[in-house]
Automatic annotation (TrEMBL), chains A, B, C, D:
Name of a matching Pfam family: 4HBT
Organism: Inhella crocodyli
Keyword annotations of the record: Membrane, Transmembrane, Transmembrane helix
GO molecular function, one term: thiolester hydrolase activity
TM region(s), chain numbering: 51-75
InterPro entries: HotDog_dom_sf (IPR029069), Thioestr_dom (IPR006683)
Entry annotated with the keyword Transmembrane helix: yes
Designated name of the protein: PaaI family thioesterase
Gene3D superfamilies the UniProt entry points to: Hotdog Thioesterase
Domain called Thioesterase: residue spans: 44-119
Length: 137, 137, 137, 137
């Protein structure tokens, strides 16, 4: 299975917009981080919801790649997120994904999102990836 | 209740990152559009999932503002999205929100996302906004 | 494709617990109803949440069967429900499903739940069915 | 805060249909179990999806009661479930809830569902409860 650096390079090619950094990829999970600056903040110092959703989506994608290999055609089929607390304006958002199922056709994982260094989660997401048929990488 | 222009101005102030345009606000719903260009596309010409999630979130926000007034502290509490089809690379994403409930404390709506001008939806989202206590705008 | 009676018979065999009645099956959708009596009510006259979830699941199942034929191995992969209003204690629950996608591998639909005869929905669900590989019925 | 027996008695009064047993209530979580017999099984020995949804709902309810006291008017506002594996036909379904947020107005928790004694989860749910205004029990 690909290591962190290989997945980070693949992510940069496949998902060039993402501002997420791959922190680690473990069997069954992955951790990513997203910088927070003016582009991510709303008035009052709230990290915007779409940023949190994007971090959840990328964390799940990275974890799936770590489990099935560098398969370009894996696509999200659903993502459900609950927003729990106001994120800190001056900390990165960290997304910790844990895969709950990696089947032949679908992978399902949950992502807990934190303001880096703080204990209480700011959001929690669950999502599904559809895995393309055929031999895996 | 605020009209389209008032909501568009409020959105620009409260959500300065958004690239969504408010197309219309009706009783019980709203329609927004998001340009699609290199910043929204992944290799192969797919609009990235986070863009679709962002459009859904903004469409719901705009519809809620249209229903309860320009209340800055309304926050998304959950958003669930299903991705249905590959969006077109050369068409705007349009999000059509229909509110299903506007209560004292929570508003719930669904958003159907299209590639502009095409009939089949590319994604569908459902989300909840928490409405702050106190007199409404 | 199977008609209403064929689907009702199939449902009775495959899902013997269900107390749902198939009212209609149309291209792209289906309508089911569930009786409400003491077994469905909680104190105060609220139809219990699990009953509403069960109606949503069956409505989606029936609509999928109507679209792909009487395939026994189709299974729900996710279901998301929002509860909107207190259902009436003395009316059947009706679930109206509209399919949003019927692909080779996944079908996605939404279900709006009503107290029969009333206009405002009591709940809204979205769910996915995984369709088994191989020739369809 | 109420103990396990008090919550079990309250559950029996408020939710008389449930066949769930309260196994434990801890700060921030709860565990419940549901017997599996002919009434829960579909042909082929699958525990029906609505049973799993019901266990998730009750596990979340019990955990919320453990956190806020015996408040009768707490209601589920949303529940999202992903089905992961076929449950065993001859084991109880166990739902383990962990609360992620207990706010003034909303509580959010996740529930992992198992076939009793087996390690891999059969389903995973996330849900929100709305907490009624006013003094807590």
């Amino acid at each position: 299975m690909p290591d962190r650096d290989a997945i980070a390079a693949f992510l940069a090619a496949e998902f060039p917009q993402t501002r997420c950094t791959v922190l680690s990829v473990e069997p069954g999970g992955a951790t990513v981080a997203h910088a927070v600056g003016p582009a991510e903040l709303r008035p009052g110092g709230t990290v915007s919801g779409p940023v949190l959703m994007a971090v959840a989506d990328v964390a799940l994608y990275v974890a799936v790649l770590g489990a099935i290999g560098l398969v370009p055609l894996a696509v999200t089929t659903d993502l459900s997120i609950h927003f729990l607390r106001k994120p800190a304006a001056d900390r990165r958002v960290v997304g910790v994904c844990r895969l709950m199922k990696v089947g032949q056709r679908l992978a399902v994982g949950e992502v807990t999102l934190y303001s880096e260094g703080l204990d209480e989660p700011v959001a929690h997401a669950v999502g599904t990836y559809a895995i393309p048929p055929g031999p895996r990488a």
